[in-house]
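This is your field. Have a critical look at the following sequence-structure pair:

***
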Amino acid sequence: MTDRALSVVRAGALTTVQDLGRPGHAHLGVPRAGALDGPAAALVNRLVGNPPEAAVLETTLNGCSLRPRSAVTVAVCGASCPVRVDGRPVAWGGPVRVPAGALLDVGAARHGVRSYVGVSGGIAVEPVLGSRSTDLLSGLGPAPLTDGAVLPLGSPTHLHARVDVAPQPAPPTELVLRVTLGPRDDWFTPEAVRAFTSRTYRVSPASNRIGLRTEGPALDRARPGELPSEGMVLGAVQVPPDGRPVVFLADHPTTGGYPVIAVVRTEDLSAAAQAVPGTPVRFLGVRRH
């Protein structure tokens, strides 16, 4: 058995393998998937000397514990958290050497929701449709980590970055999402559209990798009934019957029958990945390009 592997000692609440995702398969009903906080995933790869497409681990809220079978370089970014090697505190946000057999513990998030663990060589599970990402909606890719699982690692290709700690944005204290109205904003009353772009919502605890759910003023319909199912894109803001907007994230369905009032700018979605429940959310209307 190869010594280029990680043993999962503690899987945590939800730890998945993620990379750049599998775009381009929506016509087959396959979501994009991939890391919710793309900049954080890219940063851990840079810090350990991996190419951008290398797979990393995405943890949720309470981290995970791992034991490498050979010496590796790791980096933890995204949600800030304590990081320890055999009980000794080490850097968060910088490259750390972990000896063979040592226990790497990625602790609970102090600020934010999702931490990312990059390992030199990358997580080398078998790709599906060109990606190693776990997709919670379709079930494609590797299953979420479980205690005792073993993850193969690729071979390192470059030296790790020569930095102590890399700067990163803090999780949002207020999540401001720039939106372009449409294509179905005409399904809502003018008062509802104004409320959508002027009132404050909050992140719901029911949010997940499929969508960021909100709590706040319900949006009233101008039309009864439902749409025939139509294509959904990353960042689509769908409004289900309860009237509370849902922002579709990486594991979103590729079709849906509830009206989409607006679409969020893609570059704003990484902040949504780190918004804890209760974070205020404002939808800021912008002009179409």
